[in-house]
Amino acid sequence: MTLVSSPLRQDFSIFTKDGCRIDLHSHTQYSDGSLSPQALINRAVNFQLDVLAITDHDTVAALAIAHDYIKAQNIPLTLINGIEFSTLWQGFEIHIVGLNIDLNSLSLQALINQQQARREQRAVTLGAKLAKCGFAEVYPEAKALAQQGSITRAHFAKALLQRGVVTQMQKAFDKYIGKGKRAYVKPDWCDIETAVATIHQAGGVAIIAHPLRYDLSGKWLRRLIVHFKEVGGNALEVVLPQMAPQQRDLMLNYCLEYNLHASMGSDFHYPSRWSDLGRNLAMPEKAIPVWQLWH
Hints:
This protein is of the alpha/beta class. 39% of the residues lie in helices and 14% in strands. 43% of the residues are buried.
């Protein structure tokens, strides 16, 4: 992979611009997104974004391509280097976003390599379980869909959809590969402390992605946030496109209570009428934005 300069050297005055449009969570074909890095950049420009973070799952492979494309096309967009690490905590899969990371970090590359090996082993096992369900050779199809990117369960769901086994990708999770289903494979991700420490070693800030999507009770969500804070976590993702106002207020209150910064992003994977780049993203007035840590 071609390494690029760390955005730690960038001029972040863009964040003080009135009306600056920011999206700090998006995915490309290098994980489970549907667009190439170039197409994602073009979409960000079409949606009049000023700042975009690419945060693929356990990989930074899209970033050099995206930076080169922005430079070659002289595109007026600030690109933030990011990643979304999969972690395990108390039996729950928790995603930790790292922003403003140095891609040359050896510790970052080491953890990425470990996570990719874990992804590959999980995918092989998942393919074997699907074969026992009567669907042989799904793994090669999922691997082909992933191309050179991180293989995810979404690629298996797409493979089953293309075979006509299911009528929607979500049904693949609901019937076969979701938690507790016949072909489900328990992940073996790193812990939160390792992800946070690695992000910090790469000069970045660590954020709990979409905290309300983990099916945690209020008591367990608070425990997660306390643990995250104790191991040095920096911020919570407090704004996503489909959050109700009371949910944003809850996340903001956690930030204020635990002295955490706030991030926001669409978690964009593919064009949808329900969610898209930059849609309904506005930092709450009382929040301390995560980008203030970069100055």
